[in-house]
Amino acid sequence: MKKLIAFYGSPRIGGNSSILLSKFIEGVRDSKKYEVHEIILRELNMSPCLEIYKCKETGRCIINDDFQKIYDLIESAHTVALSSPVMFYAVSAHTKILMDRCQSFWVKKYFLKKEMSEKDGYFFCVGATKGIKLFDGILMSVKYFFDTFNCKLKESILVRGVDEKGEILKHNEYLKMAYELGKKID
Ligand SMILES: Cc1cc2nc3c(=O)[nH]c(=O)nc-3n(C[C@H](O)[C@H](O)[C@H](O)COP(=O)(O)O)c2cc1C
Predict the structure, then answer these.
(1) DSSP, residue by residue, 97-112
(2) Nearest CA to 25 among 171, 185, 165?
(3) Which domain holds residue 138?
(4) In this structure, what CATH number is given to the domain that contains residue 88?
(5) What total number of domains does the chain contain?
(6) Ligand 1 shell residues, CB under 6 Å
(7) How far apart are CA 126 and CA 175, in angstroms?
(8) Measured on CA atoms in the order 144, 150, 155, 159, is the torsion positive or negative?
(9) pTM here?
(10) What is the mean pLDDT of residues 59-73?
C-alpha cells in the first residue's frame, strides 16, 4: 500500500487549516489506497535548523529530536500533504521549522546528488483576509519545500476570509472539495 504523510501546521487545536486537511484525509481513508500517517507539528519536539551542515556528509540532519522519525517517514512516503494558516503572509512557525529542517533533503538532492523517489504534494491553507496576493509568498515556499524531497505540488486548496477557530465549518464547499480531492488521488 502507498504511504501518505500529512502534516498539520496550525498552532491551535481544531484550527481551520487542520479541519480542511482532516477532510482530505477522510477522503484518502475512504479510498482505501493509502496507509496514512498524521503528524501534528505543534506536538513535536523539533528544533529549528541550526545551520551546522553536518548533513553535507550524509544527507541526514544530526540534530537528535523528533525530526529523525519525520525524515524516515518522508523518505518512505509516496504522497505528502501539508496544512498551515497564513501568518504574516508566511506559513506558521511550526511549519517553517519543518521546512528548514528539510534543508537536509535539499543537501541530499542537490549537494550530494543522491537519488530520491518522486512524490506528490498537496497543500491546504487558510487566511483571514481576502487579498489577491495572500498566498503568493506561501505558495513559493511550499513549492520549494516540497522540491527538497522530490515532491511536486499537485494541488492546493486555499481559503480566504476565515479567521475564528472552526469558522471553516461554515464553508461546506471547501470541506467537500478537500474530501473529494482526498478520495480521487492516486
Ligand atoms: C500570528 C498570526 C498572524 C496572522 N497573519 C495573518 C496574515 O498575514 N494574513 C491573514 O490573512 N491572516 C492572518 N492571520 C489569521 C489566520 O490566518 C486565520 O485566523 C486562520 O483562520 C488561522 O488558521 P488555523 O485555525 O488553521 O490556525 C494571522 C493569525 C495569527 C495568529
Answers:
(1) HHHHHTHHHHIIIIIS
(2) 185
(3) 2-184
(4) 3.40.50.360
(5) 1
(6) 10, 12, 15-18, 85-89, 126-129, 134, 162-163, 165
(7) 12
(8) negative
(9) 0.98
(10) 97
Q: Give the sheet arrangement for strand 119-126, strand by strand.
A: 34-40, 2-8, 79-85, 119-126, 151-159
pLDDT digits (tens, 9 = 90+) for 123-145: 999 999 999 999 999 999 999 99
Predicted pLDDT of residue 32 = 97
**Which mutation among 40, 86, 133, 165 tests ligand 1's pocket best, with the greatest number of atoms within 8 A of CB?**
86
pLDDT in tens, 81-140: 999 999 999 999 999 999 999 999 999 999 999 999 999 999 999 999 999 999 999 999
Q: Which of the 8 DSSP states describes residue 90?
A: B
What is the distance in A from the centroid of ligand 1 to the CA of 165? Answer: 10
Q: How far is the CA of 110 from the centre of ligand 1 (A)?
A: 33
Alpha-carbon gap, residue 119 to 78, rounded angstroms: 5
**How far is the centre of ligand 1, averaged over its atoms, from the C-alpha of 89 (Å)?**
9
- Would you say 15 and 85 are in contact if contact means Cβ atoms under 8 Å apart? yes
